[in-house]
Amino acid sequence: MKQSKTGRVLAILFLGVLFGLYRHYQQMRALGLGRDGFLAEQGHYFDKISQYHSMATMLIAGVIVAAVTFGLYEVIAAAATKAIPPSEVEE
């Protein structure tokens, strides 16, 4: 039996929408701070990362984020594939 790719497409779309909403939230929050508040927050962030920035920590964090993202993608794709039955086309 052929597996439908609809679940994977829906998972990609869902994760894309979630990421878009997150970026929109970040931008609205930054706009709400105003120019001076935004620049002050960026200065504080720069001071924080300049005190401690380890390549090993960044690599480990990157691997963890990638694994969580891929796992979430697979769970959403599997759920969508089970929820939407494949179309039956006779050959």
If you had to describe this structure to a student in words, what would you say it looks like?
This protein has helices spanning about 5-50, 55-85. With about 90 residues, it is an all-alpha fold. It has 2 helices and no strands. It has one domain (about 5-80). Helix 1 runs antiparallel to helix 2. The mean pLDDT is about 90.
Concise account of the structure shown:
Helices cover 82% and strands 0% of the residues. The chain is mostly helical. It has one domain (6-80).
Fraction of residues in helix: over 70%
Sheet with the most strands, sense and barrel status: none
How many independent structural domains? Answer: 1
Query: How large is the radius of gyration?
Result: 20 Å
Strand content: under 5%
List the keywords:
mainly alpha; single chain
Topology, pairings included?
Elements lengths: L5 H46 L3 H29 L8
Helix pairs in contact: 1-2
